[in-house]
Amino acid sequence: MVTTSSESVVVGSPYRADCPSRRILDRIGDRWTVLTVGALGDGNVRFSELRRRVEGVSHKMLTQTLRALERDGLVRRTVYPEVPIRVEYTLTEAGRTLREPLRALEEWSITHLHDVSTSQETYDRTRSS
């Protein structure tokens, strides 16, 4: 565990409400973060292409997600002074290291989709009886 100079809290226990690592887990566990990081895995991507890749995300949510990821140092935003202005997003080195654990979650969800769906249906049937 580490104590930061800017915060008088012990860092390294996300089970504690005051631990900054909990905020990081909140960010990387967010649905739109998981999907956005996955969609950025292929290099530089423009906003409109990201919206196409991440079906269902609103303009507002994608904007908020990208800004938060940029603030956290996981995404780099590059503005090209062209007419019209071109903006591209790419994962930083830290963002690229996040791809593997998120890919594992993605694969787990695909592998266990049937089991989870079956459990949900069973649960719902027993609850509605």
From TrEMBL:
InterPro entries xrefs: HTH_HxlR, WH-like_DNA-bd_sf, WH_DNA-bd_sf
Entry-linked Pfam families: HxlR (PF01638)
Gene3D superfamilies the UniProt entry points to: Winged helix-like DNA-binding domain superfamily/Winged helix DNA-binding domain
Highest taxon, organism lineage: Bacteria
SUPFAM superfamilies: Winged helix' DNA-binding domain
Keywords of this entry: DNA-binding, Transcription, Transcription regulation
GO molecular function terms noted in the UniProt entry: DNA binding
Domain HTH hxlR-type: 19-117
Protein name: Transcriptional regulator, HxlR family
Organism: Xylanimonas cellulosilytica (strain DSM 15894 / JCM 12276 / CECT 5975 / KCTC 9989 / LMG 20990 / NBRC 107835 / XIL07)
